Amino acid sequence: MPAIFEDRKPYLDAFARFAREQPGNGRAWAGVLRREAIERFEQLGFPTQKDEAWRCTSVAPLIRIPFALAEGGRTEGLTAEVLERLTFEPWECSHLVFVNGRFAPSLSRVRRPPAGVKVKSLETALRQDRDRLEPILRRTAPTQAPAFAALNAAFLRDGAFVDIPPGTVLEEPIHLLFVSTAENGPTVSHPRTVALIGDRSRVTIVESHVGIRDDVYFTNAATTIVAGAGAIVDHTKLQRESVEAFHVANLDVEIGRDARFASHSIALGGHLVRNDVAVTLAAEGGDCVLNGLYVTSGRQHVDNHTLIDHAKPHGTSRELYKGVLDEASRGVFDGVIIVRPDAQKSDARQENRNLLISEEALVDSKPTLLINNDDVKCSHAATIGQLDEEALFYLRSRGMGEETARSLLIHAFVSDIVSRIAVSPLRAGLECLLFIRLPKHHPVRA
Amino acid sequence: MAEEGQTKTMLEIRSLRATAGGKEILKGIDLIVRAGEVHAIMGPNGSGKSTLAHVLAGRETFEVTGGQVIYEGRDLLAMPPEERAREGIFLAFQYPVEIPGVSNMYLLKAALNAMRKHRGLPELDAIEFLALVREKMKLVEMDEALLNRSVNEGFSGGEKKRNEIFQMAVLGPRLAILDETDSGLDIDALKIVARGVNSLRSPERAMLVITHYQRLLDYIVPGTVHVLHNGRIVRTGGKELALELEAKGYAGVEESVRGSRRAALPS
């Protein structure tokens, strides 16, 4: 095998073993998808920095590590109590826990959902819900997927499946908690989440990715959300992977007629992180809000790529991503907005604001507007800066110490993103996390 | 020999020189201010009025290149801005900055408690603080709703200036420096602000009222007026000096300064 294919070999070998272990009986269809996906991955290999989409992010560190496919079925000594602390529980909600990508029923709590609502592990859904799953898994065509998505599809095994019939309002959020541990050597998991929300239905979904210790592991996740006509979907992704972990995630969303979708992506952990969010406003009147926050320090590298496709008229999108970068960390924001020729009256606004705390921190911010219709309103704004000296002086001139003033301004900077998270315990928990995570805050008892 | 009861000097500025962006702006300021006094500092644009205010408050973008400032017997220039504030110096900004995400209430409480802690006083709790704040808001006719908004965010020019005086009322400084508090205000807003400032006069407090126009001084009547010209105080007088300035303009003062310099040259 030529040297350039060495990066793929461990994964191809792992696939061969994995494929043999998969159950047949009625799930050959899934096997077909997996094979197509691995062939796609084999053909593509891992991206390099010569690929435009990966220009600012090198995956060399990830390729170097021999990740073993994570075994499931073990709860690794975790208890519900440990998890509660990690996720600001208890909330009033259904709570599916996955350990290293595999559903852990003993740690989960699925409250009885309203009639017709399905909340289950993907592994179960592969058995029971082929009619619902297969079209979705086919649509995000393995044969055309980029490398990491193809890899995720090749190792399709488990994750979460949420299927909500039309006209159903879920009052309580659904929490999907993906916990990773790799005490005995680096492992990789490929969780796959599919959420189908029927016409006029409403749901809040929280996806948490958490590492217990500073283990080395790789989470290669893919999530697909389909919002039916008039549906209202709120999605939060809280990423708190280990500081040595690798996290690559694809979020692919289709918004139906007059449907509303909001996603809040909070990235706090991970050594190397890449999020790809692609939203299609697939019918008239769709509304999309993408909020993001990335807080980096040490030598973390967090890359957020987003794509909002205004495919039909009268769609609205609002995107606000904020970064706080400290020490020698690196952030990347690449936001594309496409307005198709038929999509008149599209209204799109994109903002990326970056606060550099240290001299060494770096951020690459690249907005792209591809507009093919004249009757639209589109704007974008990007800033990269440091704390406002005038504001800092104002606070100090009122008697506030310099360090306290700096951390107050940093908190103020992130506060609008945090305040948009509707799930109260999660928002409160996040505020606590940020309190600890953001540059030193000396509590001023106010 | 000092008379009994003569007030001690609060602020003494000696030959103060300062630059900004490499350009010398203050070229030797001398000034003495005692408790209870209200001094007006007037001057044309570029004379150094704002620079003086900011140097006293400790803004690091201005570099002090010479002279001394002694505040209550201490070397002011050696103190960082927060220490000067805790020691009782308050600067009412000409252009108060907006700080989204930090509420007015939070800032004031933090500031007040930092000052109290510095002076060995117990900090105020939320209830005590709110009571204090409500009382002081009346002085500048401030709306309680503005308290929970972010600092100066979305405030009109008048609201920003009133907010500065409101903060001053809550913090109770010993030396208040008002940097062109009248700029951008219409007559009604000016009157409200002036009323607030006047209500804060006290024998223990001194004020430096910096202004370009004489009009403010009809409402905040100073004891002494200094004219700042090209980085130096060139004339000092009573409140009538302000009226003279209004009549003759700054050019008239420049003339007399040049005249007196010529007269001072050896013949």
Describe the protein's topology.
The complex is a heterodimer of chains A (446) and B (267).
Chain A: H1 9-21, H2 28-44, H3 60-64, E1 68-69, H4 80-86, E2 94-99, E3 102-103, E4 118-121, H5 122-128, H6 130-139, H7 147-154, E5 159-164, E6 174-180, E7 187-189, E8 192-197, E9 202-211, E10 217-227, E11 232-240, E12 246-255, E13 260-267, E14 272-281, E15 287-296, E16 301-310, E17 316-325, E18 330-339, E19 347-356, E20 362-371, E21 377-385, H8 389-397, H9 402-419, H10 424-437
Chain B: E1 9-20, E2 23-34, E3 38-42, H1 49-57, E4 62-71, E5 74-75, H2 81-86, E6 89-92, E7 99-103, H3 104-118, H4 126-137, E8 150-151, H5 157-171, E9 175-179, H6 187-199, E10 206-211, H7 216-219, E11 224-229, E12 232-237, H8 240-264
Parallel strand pairs in B: 3-10, 3-11, 6-9, 9-10
Antiparallel strand pairs in B: 1-2, 1-4, 4-5, 7-8, 11-12
Helix pairs in contact in B: 5-6
Structural key phrases:
heterodimer; A: 446 residues; alpha/beta; eleven-stranded mixed sheet; ten-stranded mixed sheet; disordered C terminus; B: six-stranded mixed sheet; four-stranded antiparallel sheet; 12 strands
What this model shows, in words?
In chain A, strands 1, 4, 5, 7, 8, 10, 12, 14, 16, 18 and 20 form an eleven-stranded mixed sheet that branches. Chain A has 446 residues and is of the alpha/beta class. Chain A has ten helices and 21 strands. In chain A, β2 and β3 (102-103) form a beta hairpin. Chain B has 267 residues and is an alpha/beta fold. Chain B has a domain at 2-95 and 174-264: Rossmann fold (3-Layer(aba) Sandwich). Chain B has helices at residues 49-57, 81-86, 104-118, 126-137, 157-171, 187-199, 216-219, 240-264; strands spanning 9-20, 23-34, 38-42, 62-71, 74-75, 89-92, 99-103, 150-151, 175-179, 206-211, 224-229, 232-237. Chain B has a six-stranded mixed sheet with strand order 6-9-10-3-11-12, with helices on both faces. In chain B, α5 packs parallel to α6. Mean pLDDT of chain B is 91; it is low at 1-5.
